[in-house]
């Protein structure tokens, strides 16, 4: 699946846009104040990545964007693509040593910010520089391509707005560096393959974990995520959705469209589509739609209320 809008063009007015000259003056003033404070101006790596809400957006993002470009990760816990992309963004930002900061916004809890930025689906990645929002890309992207975009962002921020970033305290512990139990090497190999977009390799690694420990819930969920990402990777979303709309009785088209729905975080759409497909189909085709729906239930989690509602709808169709 290729990212869309991988570009530094298309500046969006947030209503707090500042002229480049004013932004440079503020950036220079902030650097002078930081220098006057000495080491007090340095930040820990953990301060470069933070969660943002509608209430804290102005202070954490807009105000800070006068000093350092702030990348925004619009995400939801419901999307496997978000689960894949978010740690890649975090590693890329931390590797730049204060040239960028990363703000993580849960779209489910911050709908007003979602509307303000015009985000249509997640994951979506923006940047705010001197109060101006720039769309970077939507969907997942290889780490190398993300690094290239971040390099462009840093260049724009410095050339147009005079932003050179934050001083990072090299002695501070990395974000969430608290002691954790060592990870199963096979599970770690699966996560690494997933980060690199090697979905087949990730599937094999997670299957190896489950062969040794069938009850490993993390491996089960990761395997389901990798399966989904592999299924949607080479799909043409427009063509799939057009085929599904043109022929509601085409079970294969409906299953593929449901996969895209879920990968994009549209859980209820995916469930509703497959429930309707089960209702319209019969025999082996009906069973295929039902099995895929059950697989998506497992991926989202049995404790999710949308799963409970969809299970009830499925039961009504079947019985």
UniProtKB/TrEMBL annotation:
Where do the Thioredoxin domain residues begin and end? Answer: 38-155
Under Pfam families, the record lists: Thioredoxin (PF00085), TPR_19 (PF14559), TPR_20 (PF14561)
GO BP terms in the entry: cell redox homeostasis; response to stress
The organism's place on the tree of life at top rank: Bacteria
- Matches recorded under InterPro entries: Thioredoxin-like_sf, Thioredoxin_domain, TPR-like_helical_dom_sf
What CDD domains does the entry give? Answer: ybbN (cd02956)
**Would you tell me the protein name for this molecule?**
Tetratricopeptide repeat protein
What organism does the UniProt record list as the source? Streptantibioticus silvisoli
């Amino acid at each position: 699946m290729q990212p869309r809008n991988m570009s530094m063009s298309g500046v969006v007015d947030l209503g707090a846009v500042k002229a480049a000259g004013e932004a440079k003056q503020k950036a220079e003033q902030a650097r002078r104040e930081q220098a006057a404070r000495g080491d007090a101006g340095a930040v820990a790596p953990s301060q470069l990545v933070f969660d943002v809400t509608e209430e804290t957006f102005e202070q954490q993002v807009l105000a800070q964007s006068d000093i350092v470009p702030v990348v925004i990760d619009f995400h939801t816990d419901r999307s496997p693509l978000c689960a894949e992309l978010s740690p890649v963004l975090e590693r890329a930002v931390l590797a730049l040593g204060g040239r960028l900061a990363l703000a993580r916004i849960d779209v489910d809890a911050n709908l007003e910010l979602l509307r303000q930025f015009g985000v249509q689906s997640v994951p979506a990645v923006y940047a705010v520089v001197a109060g101006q929002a720039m769309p970077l890309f939507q969907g997942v992207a290889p780490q190398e391509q993300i690094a290239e975009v971040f390099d462009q962002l840093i260049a724009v921020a410095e050339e147009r707005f005079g932003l050179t970033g934050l001083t990072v305290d090299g002695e501070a512990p990395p974000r969430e560096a608290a002691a954790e139990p060592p990870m199963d090497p096979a599970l770690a190999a699966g996560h690494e393959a997933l980060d690199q977009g090697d979905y087949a390799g990730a599937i094999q690694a997670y299957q190896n974990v489950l062969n040794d420990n069938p009850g490993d819930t993390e491996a089960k969920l990761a395997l389901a995520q990798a399966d989904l990402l592999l299924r949607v990777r080479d799909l043409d979303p427009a063509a799939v959705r057009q085929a599904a709309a043109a022929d509601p009785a085409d079970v294969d088209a409906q299953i593929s469209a449901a996969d895209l729905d879920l990968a994009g975080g549209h859980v209820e759409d995916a469930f509703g589509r497959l429930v309707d497909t089960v209702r319209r189909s019969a025999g082996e085709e009906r069973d295929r739609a039902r099995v895929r729906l059950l697989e998506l239930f497992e991926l989202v989690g049995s404790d999710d209320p949308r799963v409970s509602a969809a299970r009830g709808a499925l039961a009504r169709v079947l019985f």
